[in-house]
Each structure stands twice: as structure tokens, then as C-alpha cells.
TrEMBL record:
InterPro entries: FAD/NAD-bd_sf, FAD/NAD-binding_dom, NDH-2
Organism: Pelagomonas calceolata
Signal peptide as annotated in the record: 1-15
Protein name stated in the entry: FAD/NAD(P)-binding domain-containing protein
Domain of life assignment: Eukaryota
PANTHER family xref list: FAD_NAD(P)-BINDING DOMAIN-CONTAINING PROTEIN, NADH DEHYDROGENASE
Gene Ontology molecular function terms on file: NADH dehydrogenase activity
Keyword annotations: FAD, Flavoprotein, NAD, Oxidoreductase, Signal
Amino acid sequence: MQLLLLWVAVHAAAALVHTTTLPHKTRLLATTTLVDRALDTLEDATLHLTRLSEGDAQDVGPRNDDDDRATLVVLGSGWASHALIKVVDANKYRVVVVSPRNHFVFTPMLASAAVGTVEYRSMTESVRGANPLVQFVEGAATGVNLDQRYVMVQPVPLGGDAPAPQRISYDALVVAVGSRAADANVPGARERCFALKDCEDARRLREAVGERFERAARAGDAATARELTFAVVGGGATGVELAGELSDFVNDVGRLYPSLPQEAPRVVLVHSGDELLPQFDPDLRIEALRALERRGVLVRLGRRVQRVDEEALRLDDGSDVPCALCAWCAGTAPVPFTESLPVPVGDDGRPFVDGWLRVAGSPPGTVYGLGDAFCCIPNGESEPVPQTAQVAGRAESNFRRPTTRCCLHFHTGRRPAGCVRRSSAQSRLRLRPNAASATSRDSDAGRQLAPVAGRGGGVGVFVSEPRAPRVRRRWRSLVPGPGRRRPSRRVGGLRGLPVVEVRLHCEAGRDAEPRARHVRLGQDGPFRSGYHSALMICVRSF
């Protein structure tokens, strides 16, 4: 019965994928991602419902003798750590969260909060409210001993003397401390520019903008233009959002000051690259530039700031940008705690993590790095993943749900590297490049295929010896390959569903013990070959 339900799900998803009008790669990716995330959401919702009957977490202290849970220490309260805290199973782990900030900030709204469009309370969430079963320590991590597995924490003073440092031991450590503004290499940037990392930064910037208008109203005509010129350094997501919000704000507020020239308020965006938003698609870059120009923002591309003076920015071409306020949104740099980790780092100072988010150079399976504090370069890519909230928010899945997936494919073109031909009952499996030589046969368990492509581990797929159930011919028209009206006669689509057992042999994570996992649909990375996936089986998790 389960096999029948799974078979129906496969063809229902395939029919849904191929009836949309989007390009085949986009529609398959969007549909499978939607189903995959919907199943993740369902699982998370089930976990949240079980918490309704649970008690609250206890204060941090020595572990009870009867508590056999492993201790998971999470450093930080940003996007990556918040996503992990909300869905971590506190019944399996004793979770301790350490952060000098007791709330999560929805950073995409910081630019709106800086101009008063959004109030601060609508963009924050308490760490304890995100998961009442975790233990929270309001303090800053000052050091870590990777060999003895403990973290030194300096609690935040709360109206009295500075408390004594705490030593918190862990079985697994998740470092998600985020990053800071990269303003150390430009003279005057740290002293004279405003950052935009949390609500306090947005509040200070909001007050400073209002003060500049009051100064301009008192100043003479010669100083008016400088007092109402607002500079933004950096053409990334934060800089573009802030420049657009500032432009709308100064134009609206300027009407409240009739003594000021209406053309006096202006916003200047300085970016060292040739295009805005370098981590996004070219179409979005062009549209972002057009949107800023429509709002009256003066965009200076290909210019670096050499020095920040009291009243102007000095650029690398020798020109000056007079301004009375500058917001620094140009890049990120590691925080002191990340710099103190005894692990190798890249050119930008960030430590490396692998596909399972394990920190390179740390004891295996004990230290994980999430968010933009670390550099993760996916397999086959030359550039690291973007330092965006979307990436950090999904990073917890790689840590909490490290899965390896088995894919059934339909042939629609040339055979990509690593694809080994199997019998019609097995359809086609995309394997690793060295998978062909690893194939073996077991007389009892059936035919064992080589490890399927996956990050950090291998999957052995066992195919039953009895003849697989055949599919009626009418099903073939529901799964045509891209560029074809129906699959080739030699392949014939899925002629059966022979997979009866999938086993995971994976070294990822601290515990290599495979555990059962449900079946789901999803996507298998970028579509770089003439193959498209029809079924994906998420076989194991931790």
C-alpha cells in the first residue's frame, strides 16, 4: 500500500511540474522546492505542537545525573541561529543559547526602521519566545577550547557589577555570531560613519537624519546643500535598501521645512563595483539601478572611498562627495570571536565550512559554523554562498537535517558525467564519478548500487530481486523530458518502483548512526545536464 501511495505521489508531482508554463528547469526547481519546504514546515509544526505540553527550560547549571541528552551550545541570535533555535528538538538535546542580545532582529526591515516606516517592536522576536525549552545566557562568548569542549562566556552586566565569567561545556557547538561592518581599512569610517546591524544602529541613524534637517534649517544657503546630503557606501542589499528608503524619506520630510530648497535633500550611493547587488541576477542588478535613479539617488559606480572626513568623502579618483551623514554598508568582516578561533581562515578572514557546515580544522563533528561568519563554497562552485538572510535562514537545515537523497532520472539528452546506465526496472540513477567501480551484488539483499551523489556521505540503494511492478503505458505521457514531447522508447520513463530499502552510510555529524527518515519530493542541486529528476527519496537524517 505504501508503495502504491508513493507511486501516485510521484506521478501527481510530475504532472504538476509539466503542466505549468514556466521554463522546465525553473518550474521543476520551484515545484520540488515548494514540496520539500512544505514537508519541512509540516514537520516543524508537529514539533511545535508537542511543545505545548512541555515545561519551560531551567536555568543554566551543571547537568543533572539523570539527563542523558547531549549539550548543544548555540552562539548568536541572528538569522541562522534563530532558525535553528525555533525547530531544534529540545527532547534530544540540552540546548544552551549564548548571545549579548536577547532577541532576534529581522534585518531586512532595518532600513525602514531607520527612517521611521517600521517600528522596532515589529521586527524583533525574543530568543526565549522562539523556543521556551532552550536555556538562554545573555552574554558574549570570549573564548573556546576546541579540545576540551567548553566556551568561556562573559555575562552582560545588568545594572550592577560585572558578573564572573562562565564556563559552559558542550558536546556540539554551533557558532553563528554573525559579522560586523568592514570599516577598519578606511580612515575615519568607523569613527564618522553609521552602521546598520541592529535596532540600536537604526535608532541612531534615524535621530541623526532628523538632526541634519534641523541644522540645515538654521544654517545659511551655503551650508544647506552639505547638511542635506546623505551618503551611503556600499552597493549590496543593505546599501541599496537604505539608499531607497533614505531617498523617499528626505523627499517627504523636506516638505515640512518650507524654508529649505526642495532640491536640496539628496542621497548619494558610492559603490566600488561596476554593478549594484553583485550577488544577485543581472536582471535584478539593472532593475535596482533604475529604481534608485527614478527616486533621484545619485549612484557613483566604480569608486572606492579612500578616507572619510568630517564633511566629505574622499574617493579614489581624487574627487570629494560633500555630506553631513554617511552610512557604511560596504561589506562585512569577522567579529573578534570568529577571529580568535584556532582554525584556518580565507583571504577575507572567515573560517571555512564544508557541505555539512562543519568548521574546517576543528575536531570532527563537534563545531559547526552557520551564517555569514563562515565561508561555504558548494561543490562545483567557485564562489561562496551569498551573505544574505535567505541563505543564513536555510543553513539550519544542513545542520539539523543533514540528508542524502537518492534521485531517479529520465534521460532527455546527453549522459552527464557520473551517470551509470542501469536496467529498465531501475530507471537511471545519478551516481558519483567513481561510482561505477564501486557497484557490488548481494545474493540475499538484491543488487546494491554504488553511492548516489550526495554531500558528505553515501547512499546504498537496494533493488529487490523479484520483477518490479510495471507501469501502464499511459503514465509515460505525464513525465516528458524537457525539449521532448515524451520520453524515448528505450528508457520508457519509470517502468517500476523497485526501490525497497535505502541505507545511509554517512560520516557527517557527531553521530554516524543512520536513522529512519520519511519520503519526500525535492530537487537535486543545479540542473547542469540533460537530466531532470522525477522522484527524490530523502532517506536518512540526524
